[in-house]
């Protein structure tokens, strides 16, 4: 009889992680759509808020389950940090999309689209890494995904610095600069949060594999 | 003989929490006064610095006591995070008031006043929730306060988004925008910190009640 | 036979802390050079990136070693937080230097130089405090260093508020304000991170001395 049969409740933590990683991918997909065509931004930002609320619920449910569970498959602090890390990714994705509406950014810069595409790739890697946590049959594969997320974060960082320099060189409108600077920064923070989650997963793999 | 009689030192942690929650309420009250009438802002910001230092001292004293105490009424990490969370609330309140002076903001926007009023309510709820932690006779009441703090944070978030959109629509002065954008953001971060504390308290109640 | 003879591996954590504290001092020195003469900023920012990568490697190596080590000389969480705290200092120093290049800031303000000088002093104190952690023969000396770091952070905070008020009073160019405001804020965050590390060290000393 497999190990899991005795501990169905513990396995639910991995379900929560996967569910939340899926909301992150859904959020990053919707954001990329908004960045490519912002004409329906208000409705899309509304849909994003719903994705973000779904993520909040999963986080809340995870915490509640944690308080009710005596034996956990990972350290309690690891569970707490991993679900909060996933929540951070989604929060920054949501914050980016809210800014597009708040600042009435109809024409999105190609730089923001490039960053949004890297972010989507990063969330997809996070989703795969989170999925692999459940079994840990191939720890080296998980570690490779974490390295890839780190690479994507570095790529995003380079795009950000290039975008920001361009923004300040090509625009003379300070209000335009204020708006786009903040969008770029939120995109970067979303990517940073992906890296934070990758580092947590790496730690879990090294400890448990 | 009640349990507490044997453990007077442990009970002091709850005193520290209450004292710090009181500094948060005092800070939020003073900030609302400043937002309603900023003519004496310099003196008020000075008074705020003193409140903030009082908070720092309580935090420091809590940490010191924690290191000297062997048996604690809550997990050590819970104590550390709760007092740091209260400290964050006060730091953001202080940061807001410093900006009013630094940026010479004589005429405060009604949006900032509205946010300041919600923040005061949130700190008052935090104070009540912290008080109830001591006994935990009525855990459901504490959980309701936490839900109310979350509601206030959502209310504040909606006001913030409305205020920020208005700021960018109605003003054409980028320096004015930079200043008020930052004030709104600090008010929001203060509210976010109230929510963080509510989440910590909820966790403590679920674990210990 | 001294205690350390049996536990050579544990001692390596103190080596990691010292190495990372050295990268922080090296970063703060290079940053002060840039702030005093920004003509070679692009090359200097490149050199800074290398220092930052060296810090990342030490952090990563510390985490790996932590996962492989069963008995640690400090709590696992203390090790994790201390090395992350040192990493934060260096990240903010690097972020400051990147901004000087990104924003093409040829003429550095005297206020930024003053802040950079205080930051260098703070990192030097952090380095000394970290060194003293290894032995803890003179715990009072370490605590004094922590107090000094707190004093430097307060000094930096006062300079920052003065600088920011001056920036908004003397400049009418919003783009200039956006750029320098961010540089000042990153310098302040680097100083804040020094204070965070000092608080961690204080905690470790109180617990272990």
Explain the overall architecture.
The structure is a homotrimer of 209-residue chains. Chain A is mainly alpha-helical and 209 residues long. The first copy, chain A, has a single domain (9-208), classed as Phosphate transport system protein phou homolog 2, domain 2 (Methane Monooxygenase Hydroxylase, Chain G, domain 1). Chain A has helices at residues 8-36, 41-68, 76-102, 110-133, 139-170, 174-208. In chain A, helix 1 (8-36) runs antiparallel to helix 2 and helix 2 (41-68) runs antiparallel to helix 3. The radius of gyration of chain A is 18 Å and the shape is globular. The first copy, chain A, starts with 7 loop residues before the first helix and ends with a helix. Mean pLDDT of chain A is 91; it is low at 1-10. Chain A binds chain B through residues 63-64, 67-68, 77, 98, 101-104, 174-175, 178-179, and chain B through 77, 161, 164-165, 168-169, 172, 174, 177-178, 181, 199, 202-203, 206-207.
């Amino acid at each position: 009889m497999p190990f899991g049969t005795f501990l169905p409740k513990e396995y639910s933590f991995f379900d929560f992680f996967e569910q939340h990683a899926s909301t992150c991918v859904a959020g990053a997909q919707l954001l990329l759509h908004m960045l490519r065509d912002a004409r329906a931004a208000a409705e899309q930002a509304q849909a994003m808020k719903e994705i973000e609320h779904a993520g909040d619920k999963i986080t809340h449910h995870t915490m509640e389950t944690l308080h009710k569970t005596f034996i956990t498959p990972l350290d309690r602090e690891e569970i707490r940090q991993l679900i909060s890390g996933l929540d951070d990714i989604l929060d920054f994705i949501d914050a980016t999309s809210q800014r597009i509406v708040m600042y009435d950014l109809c024409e999105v810069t190609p730089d923001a689209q490039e960053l949004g595409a890297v972010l989507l790739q990063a969330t997809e890697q996070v989703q795969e890494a989170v999925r692999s946590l459940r079994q840990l049959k191939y720890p080296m594969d998980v570690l490779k995904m974490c390295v890839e997320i780190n690479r994507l974060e570095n790529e995003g960082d380079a795009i950000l610095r290039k975008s920001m320099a361009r923004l300040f060189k090509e625009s003379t409108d300070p209000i335009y600069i204020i708006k786009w600077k903040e969008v770029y920064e939120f995109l970067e923070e979303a990517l940073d949060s992906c890296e934070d989650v990758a580092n947590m997963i790496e730690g879990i793999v090294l400890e448990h594999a």
